[in-house]
Amino acid sequence: MSRTGINYQDVANAAIKVQGLSKNLTVDNIREILGIGSKSTIARHLKDWKDNNGPIANSHGLPPELIAIVSGLWERLQGHAEQQVIELQQEAKEKMQAYDLNLIQVKKKNLELQAQAHQLEETLFQQQNANKVLDQNFANEAQSNLKHQSHIFSLEAQLNSQKEENTKLHSLLKNIQSNLEHYQGSMQKVQQEQALAIEKQKHQYEQEIAELRQKVINAIQQENIYKLQLEPLQKQQSQIENITIHSQKLERLLKEKGKRIVTIEEQYKQSINNVEIMNFNLENQSKTIAELGQKAAIAVSRCVDFEKLLKEANDKISTLRHEQIFTLQEKANLEGQVKQLKLFGECA
Prior knowledge:
Blueprint: H1 8-20, H2 27-34, H3 39-52, H4 64-182, H5 188-347
Helix pairs in contact: 1-2, 1-3, 1-4, 2-3, 4-5
């Protein structure tokens, strides 16, 4: 039993398409076109179509070979156009996916750059705070150093004053000794008392001078300690300057990366414009394909008209052939009559 939907006309049209594709008229090729139907049903209808030479397809009086060629040509054009549309759509889809992937990568890179910029800003802020603390410590140490230097200057001034006073005392002692030589005899007791007082005062002054010298030595040692403490501060100051230079480099790098991000965004916008242009071209190509389809339909209509004209011309040719045959027959009759008249004249 034949399956529902398969009839003689379906098999006939499929047979015309197979001829248009320049394939053999086999049951397998017909079923490949139809996609459904049993082979026995297709074989029966195909046999009927071959016996009748395709009357269903020849409803306009056209030769089945011409209909098969035009149908095959139309299907090839339509298949080629559909294939081009599919390829263009696939190409546009792939480009859109590539652009989307590129956009995701750009956004990811942008986020990474922003995170790096934020981290650099935090590092710069911390370094600036550390610089402020170091500057404050350096200022405090410098102020403390100034105080110690002022104290040292004060001690040196006291020492110089004590030296001057000691010099004056030595000079006075010499004068007293000179005077005592003149009054030694009468003033021996007074001289001894004054000498003891002077020695006591001298010993006291020497103790004070020794203490002042020790203070000066301590001040010099403290100054050396401050100098040793100042060297790390100077190194820290140098490190601060290096960190500042590095921060400036990082800021310049951040600006360059910002410019790069702007360039990438412009490239993405340009890519979007290119995709829109491709879509516009695709629409134009679709319109062109539709126009080609219309032109093909017009060509089929012209072929039909041409077949009609060709049929009329063939009819006229057939009529002219019949008239030519009739004329030749009349000519032959007239020639026969002329020959008979000539024979009759010769006999007479």
